[in-house]
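re the bet — no i am not wrong, look at it urself. input seq straight from the record:
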Amino acid sequence: MANGIILGVFQNFQELVQQVPEFVHPLILAAAGAVPFIEGEGATTIGVLGGINPLAAALAGFAGNLLCVVLLVLLGSGTRGAVVGHRGRRERSRREGLSEAELTAEDAERAGVTLSPRRAKFQRVFSRWGVPGVSLLGPALLPTQFTATMLAGAGVAPRRIIFWQAIAIAGWTSIAALLISYILSTVQ
């Protein structure tokens, strides 16, 4: 069912790109890039399939995806800071011996904490690969908006999250632009 919803949203963005004046296309693609599960690479695909220059489509999709991620990271970090507070964080770290970001699925199980399937998947990748791995591999597992928010909630520094998420979004968006452009050039 979720795939059908995502496909419907994808198709709606494609139709919208066809209906609006050309100067509005980057705004539509940026908006699509901000939608989880569509993201920068989906927005790029929508744009390239709609006849938009692949570089312009990739830049618009990247911008929308990154802007959304930056806002979520800043909001998530601010919320976490307000809720946890410096003193409470230090006491909990001393008591548990680990920060929340370092809590693995096994540690959570030993502590009697049950993780959602998404959170467990995130924790496995995070434990093995750290912030760069979660950011770079994340889009294959979860939307960048989800992984960035989880990293912020785990206490990772916002600048570090944004840096690695920007690299990941640029990479995945570039791959989508190149792949879709190549496929279209071989079909024509």
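see?? The chain is about 80% helix and 0% strand. told u. also The two ends are 33 Å apart (CA to CA). so pay up
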